[in-house]
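Note to self: keep these together.
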Amino acid sequence: MAFMPFVTAGDPDMETTGAVIQELAATGVDLIEVGFPYSDPIADGPVIQASYTRALGKHITVQQIFEGLAATNPASLPPILGMVSYAIIFRTGVERFLQQAKEAGLSGLIVPDLPGDEAADLFTQAKKAGLDLVQLVAPTTPRERVREILKHCSGFVYCIAVAGTTGARDSIESALLDQLRWLREETDLPLAVGFGISRPEHVAPLRQLADGVIVGSGLVRFLEQCSAGADGKEGVLGGIRDLSVAMVAATHS
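Structure:
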């Protein structure tokens, strides 16, 4: 199984974001998801919302994010995907944003506030730009709607583990497992599970059903310590490293 960690761009600054990306890559992760801070996130829980607020409070810009990502030398790293609001893409200009994303080294995008069955145009333009467009489906998404969403999806399917926002949970819901079994019959795309995945023991119930897991809040909470001055950058990187090593071991075994 693949392990895909999430990090907020610009929290507390892009230099730290770059260091976190390099640290994650060194632990053997398979893909890195980078969140573009946005004032009104549609699916993020309190940990990631707070991280976005901290970054926006320091006036992080889309251009700074792209420049910071490019400086990490993405060609030497696992694939990097941007988690970004469509409002940001629209304000930048779709063609311009996709071009900048490709030039910065991104491999694809996740756009949580663009309904999957309305994503045909962005899907076509992203494909033309050489980028994947990953779509999200939830356990509560009607199956006919899922089939429409899958028509405009590439890279992998982001399977939301719970009916709710991001954040650590204690267990895996049975509705998710049922949906994963059904999705296996509907698509050849890899299935990756996120929202609520936060520790190695969450991996076992997903084995044989999912191709990967995504951890966001479990890692982003370390950045709060850095922003608050409660722990230095090395301490934060150490905590991120330890969790990433444990997740890589759990998924790759």
